[in-house]
Amino acid sequence: MRLADDDIPVRADTTVRPELPDGDVWSQVAAVCGATADAVAPVVAAGRVPTVFSGDCLVAGGVVAGAQRVGVDPAIVWFDAHGDVHTLETTTSGYLGGLALRVVTGAHPDRYADGFGLRPLAPERAVLVDARDLDPAEAEYLETGRTGRIPVSDVSAGTVPPGPLVLHLDVDVIDAREVPGLRFPASQGPTTDAVLAACARLLATGRVVAVSVACPWWPARDDDERAVRARLISRLSS
Protein backbone atom coordinates (compact mmCIF):
# COMPACT_ATOMS: atom_id res chain seq x y z
CA MET A 1 0.00 0.00 0.00
CA ARG A 2 1.40 3.40 -1.01
CA LEU A 3 1.49 5.89 1.84
CA ALA A 4 -0.18 9.24 1.38
CA ASP A 5 2.16 12.11 0.53
CA ASP A 6 2.01 13.58 4.03
CA ASP A 7 2.53 10.34 5.94
CA ILE A 8 6.30 10.80 5.72
CA PRO A 9 6.45 14.54 6.47
CA VAL A 10 9.70 15.56 4.86
CA ARG A 11 10.58 18.20 2.27
CA ALA A 12 12.14 16.13 -0.47
CA ASP A 13 14.53 17.37 -3.14
CA THR A 14 13.46 14.42 -5.30
CA THR A 15 10.36 12.26 -5.14
CA VAL A 16 10.64 8.76 -6.60
CA ARG A 17 7.36 7.59 -8.11
CA PRO A 18 8.08 5.09 -10.88
CA GLU A 19 5.37 3.66 -13.05
CA LEU A 20 4.80 0.21 -11.61
CA PRO A 21 4.82 -2.56 -14.19
CA ASP A 22 2.20 -5.21 -14.54
CA GLY A 23 3.29 -8.52 -13.11
CA ASP A 24 4.25 -9.85 -9.73
CA VAL A 25 5.22 -7.83 -6.69
CA TRP A 26 8.93 -8.52 -7.23
CA SER A 27 8.91 -6.68 -10.55
CA GLN A 28 7.23 -3.74 -8.85
CA VAL A 29 9.82 -3.78 -6.04
CA ALA A 30 12.55 -3.79 -8.70
CA ALA A 31 11.00 -0.74 -10.37
CA VAL A 32 10.98 1.19 -7.10
CA CYS A 33 14.52 0.13 -6.20
CA GLY A 34 15.82 0.92 -9.68
CA ALA A 35 14.32 4.40 -9.59
CA THR A 36 15.77 4.89 -6.12
CA ALA A 37 19.21 3.89 -7.38
CA ASP A 38 18.87 6.35 -10.26
CA ALA A 39 18.15 9.15 -7.77
CA VAL A 40 20.88 8.17 -5.30
CA ALA A 41 23.75 7.67 -7.72
CA PRO A 42 24.34 11.30 -8.83
CA VAL A 43 24.12 12.56 -5.24
CA VAL A 44 26.77 10.10 -4.07
CA ALA A 45 28.89 10.89 -7.14
CA ALA A 46 28.79 14.57 -6.14
CA GLY A 47 30.21 13.72 -2.73
CA ARG A 48 26.99 14.36 -0.82
CA VAL A 49 25.15 11.95 1.50
CA PRO A 50 21.56 11.38 0.37
CA THR A 51 18.85 10.43 2.85
CA VAL A 52 16.09 8.30 1.36
CA PHE A 53 12.76 8.00 3.16
CA SER A 54 10.43 5.15 2.24
CA GLY A 55 7.67 3.02 3.68
CA ASP A 56 9.47 -0.31 3.44
CA CYS A 57 12.93 -1.76 4.13
CA LEU A 58 13.15 -3.37 0.67
CA VAL A 59 13.99 0.07 -0.75
CA ALA A 60 17.38 -0.10 1.03
CA GLY A 61 18.72 -2.29 -1.76
CA GLY A 62 18.07 0.53 -4.20
CA VAL A 63 20.11 2.86 -2.02
CA VAL A 64 23.01 0.39 -2.00
CA ALA A 65 22.73 -0.09 -5.76
CA GLY A 66 22.84 3.67 -6.30
CA ALA A 67 26.15 3.89 -4.45
CA GLN A 68 27.49 0.91 -6.38
CA ARG A 69 26.64 2.53 -9.71
CA VAL A 70 29.20 5.26 -9.08
CA GLY A 71 31.98 2.94 -7.96
CA VAL A 72 31.36 2.84 -4.21
CA ASP A 73 31.38 -0.60 -2.58
CA PRO A 74 29.55 -0.07 0.72
CA ALA A 75 28.76 -2.32 3.62
CA ILE A 76 25.45 -1.82 5.40
CA VAL A 77 24.52 -1.11 9.01
CA TRP A 78 20.90 -2.14 9.51
CA PHE A 79 18.98 -0.71 12.48
CA ASP A 80 15.78 -2.69 12.97
CA ALA A 81 13.64 -4.20 15.71
CA HIS A 82 13.29 -7.26 13.46
CA GLY A 83 15.80 -9.50 11.74
CA ASP A 84 14.60 -9.08 8.15
CA VAL A 85 16.62 -12.22 7.36
CA HIS A 86 13.86 -14.60 6.30
CA THR A 87 13.81 -16.30 2.92
CA LEU A 88 10.81 -17.37 0.89
CA GLU A 89 11.30 -20.80 2.40
CA THR A 90 11.34 -19.66 6.03
CA THR A 91 8.81 -16.83 6.14
CA THR A 92 5.61 -17.74 7.92
CA SER A 93 3.75 -14.51 7.13
CA GLY A 94 4.71 -14.00 3.49
CA TYR A 95 5.59 -10.37 4.24
CA LEU A 96 8.41 -9.53 1.85
CA GLY A 97 9.80 -6.80 4.10
CA GLY A 98 10.82 -9.61 6.43
CA LEU A 99 13.32 -10.71 3.76
CA ALA A 100 14.80 -7.26 3.19
CA LEU A 101 18.29 -7.65 4.67
CA ARG A 102 18.59 -11.22 3.45
CA VAL A 103 17.91 -10.27 -0.18
CA VAL A 104 20.38 -7.37 0.05
CA THR A 105 22.96 -9.97 1.12
CA GLY A 106 22.26 -12.39 -1.70
CA ALA A 107 19.07 -14.39 -1.19
CA HIS A 108 16.77 -14.83 -4.20
CA PRO A 109 18.83 -12.68 -6.61
CA ASP A 110 16.58 -13.64 -9.51
CA ARG A 111 13.61 -12.12 -7.65
CA TYR A 112 15.35 -9.03 -6.23
CA ALA A 113 18.92 -7.94 -6.98
CA ASP A 114 19.02 -8.93 -10.65
CA GLY A 115 15.94 -6.81 -11.32
CA PHE A 116 17.71 -3.49 -10.71
CA GLY A 117 21.41 -4.23 -10.90
CA LEU A 118 22.27 -4.62 -7.22
CA ARG A 119 25.47 -6.50 -6.53
CA PRO A 120 24.47 -8.37 -3.35
CA LEU A 121 26.64 -7.72 -0.34
CA ALA A 122 28.51 -10.55 1.33
CA PRO A 123 26.69 -11.41 4.58
CA GLU A 124 29.71 -10.35 6.64
CA ARG A 125 29.44 -6.90 5.07
CA ALA A 126 26.23 -6.35 7.01
CA VAL A 127 25.65 -5.77 10.71
CA LEU A 128 22.21 -5.84 12.29
CA VAL A 129 21.61 -3.38 15.11
CA ASP A 130 19.10 -4.32 17.84
CA ALA A 131 16.79 -6.95 16.20
CA ARG A 132 15.07 -7.90 19.43
CA ASP A 133 12.03 -9.50 17.76
CA LEU A 134 13.23 -12.56 15.87
CA ASP A 135 11.43 -15.60 14.54
CA PRO A 136 13.15 -18.95 15.27
CA ALA A 137 14.48 -19.29 11.71
CA GLU A 138 15.96 -15.80 11.89
CA ALA A 139 17.59 -16.46 15.27
CA GLU A 140 19.14 -19.64 13.92
CA TYR A 141 20.45 -17.88 10.83
CA LEU A 142 22.04 -15.10 12.86
CA GLU A 143 23.59 -17.55 15.32
CA THR A 144 25.21 -19.61 12.58
CA GLY A 145 25.71 -17.13 9.75
CA ARG A 146 28.20 -14.37 9.06
CA THR A 147 25.98 -11.32 9.52
CA GLY A 148 26.85 -9.55 12.76
CA ARG A 149 24.36 -8.43 15.38
CA ILE A 150 25.01 -5.79 18.04
CA PRO A 151 22.97 -3.63 20.42
CA VAL A 152 22.46 0.05 19.74
CA SER A 153 24.81 0.95 22.60
CA ASP A 154 27.70 -0.89 20.91
CA VAL A 155 27.52 0.93 17.58
CA SER A 156 30.86 2.56 16.80
CA ALA A 157 33.43 2.80 14.05
CA GLY A 158 35.07 -0.35 15.37
CA THR A 159 31.98 -2.56 15.56
CA VAL A 160 30.76 -2.14 11.97
CA PRO A 161 32.38 -3.35 8.73
CA PRO A 162 35.30 -1.32 7.39
CA GLY A 163 35.07 1.04 4.45
CA PRO A 164 32.11 2.99 3.09
CA LEU A 165 28.74 2.44 4.75
CA VAL A 166 25.07 2.68 3.94
CA LEU A 167 23.16 3.39 7.13
CA HIS A 168 19.69 1.85 7.08
CA LEU A 169 17.23 2.75 9.83
CA ASP A 170 13.81 1.18 10.24
CA VAL A 171 12.06 3.51 12.68
CA ASP A 172 10.54 0.52 14.47
CA VAL A 173 13.95 -0.05 16.03
CA ILE A 174 12.84 2.66 18.46
CA ASP A 175 10.69 1.50 21.36
CA ALA A 176 7.07 1.37 20.21
CA ARG A 177 5.96 3.68 23.03
CA GLU A 178 7.80 6.52 21.30
CA VAL A 179 6.60 5.88 17.74
CA PRO A 180 2.82 5.44 17.47
CA GLY A 181 1.00 3.53 14.78
CA LEU A 182 3.78 1.19 13.66
CA ARG A 183 2.76 -1.78 11.54
CA PHE A 184 5.05 -4.09 13.48
CA PRO A 185 5.63 -2.51 16.90
CA ALA A 186 8.25 -3.99 19.21
CA SER A 187 8.46 -3.14 22.89
CA GLN A 188 11.50 -2.92 25.17
CA GLY A 189 13.58 -1.14 22.60
CA PRO A 190 16.03 1.75 22.72
CA THR A 191 14.92 5.35 22.98
CA THR A 192 14.88 7.75 20.08
CA ASP A 193 17.81 9.59 21.64
CA ALA A 194 19.88 6.40 21.90
CA VAL A 195 19.21 5.43 18.29
CA LEU A 196 20.00 8.89 16.93
CA ALA A 197 23.18 9.04 19.02
CA ALA A 198 24.31 5.74 17.50
CA CYS A 199 23.60 7.05 14.00
CA ALA A 200 25.53 10.22 14.82
CA ARG A 201 28.55 8.16 15.85
CA LEU A 202 28.56 6.49 12.44
CA LEU A 203 28.03 9.73 10.56
CA ALA A 204 30.92 11.29 12.46
CA THR A 205 33.28 8.72 10.91
CA GLY A 206 32.81 10.33 7.49
CA ARG A 207 32.31 6.84 6.03
CA VAL A 208 28.53 6.95 5.55
CA VAL A 209 27.79 7.45 1.85
CA ALA A 210 23.97 7.21 2.02
CA VAL A 211 21.19 6.89 4.55
CA SER A 212 18.01 4.87 4.13
CA VAL A 213 15.08 5.43 6.50
CA ALA A 214 12.05 3.12 6.43
CA CYS A 215 8.81 4.29 8.03
CA PRO A 216 6.57 1.20 8.10
CA TRP A 217 3.64 2.75 9.90
CA TRP A 218 -0.10 2.91 9.31
CA PRO A 219 -1.59 6.18 8.09
CA ALA A 220 -1.65 8.64 10.99
CA ARG A 221 -4.88 8.49 12.98
CA ASP A 222 -4.85 12.01 14.35
CA ASP A 223 -2.88 15.22 14.73
CA ASP A 224 -0.98 13.90 17.75
CA GLU A 225 0.44 11.00 15.74
CA ARG A 226 1.31 13.33 12.89
CA ALA A 227 3.14 15.65 15.28
CA VAL A 228 5.20 12.82 16.81
CA ARG A 229 6.18 11.57 13.38
CA ALA A 230 7.01 15.03 12.13
CA ARG A 231 9.38 15.59 15.08
CA LEU A 232 11.08 12.26 14.43
CA ILE A 233 11.45 12.88 10.70
CA SER A 234 12.81 16.35 11.42
CA ARG A 235 15.49 14.91 13.68
CA LEU A 236 16.37 12.22 11.15
CA SER A 237 16.65 14.84 8.40
CA SER A 238 18.97 17.17 10.29
Automatic annotation (TrEMBL):
A Gene Ontology term for the protein's cellular component: cytoplasm
Keyword Secreted: no
GO molecular function, one term: arginase activity
Matches recorded under Pfam families: Arginase
InterPro entries: Ureohydrolase, Ureohydrolase_dom_sf
PROSITE patterns, per the entry: ARGINASE_2
Key words, A-Z: Hydrolase, Manganese, Metal-binding
Family the UniProt entry places it in: Belongs to the arginase family.
Name of protein: Arginase
Species, as recorded: Virgisporangium ochraceum
Upper taxonomic lineage: Bacteria, Bacillati, Actinomycetota, Actinomycetes, Micromonosporales
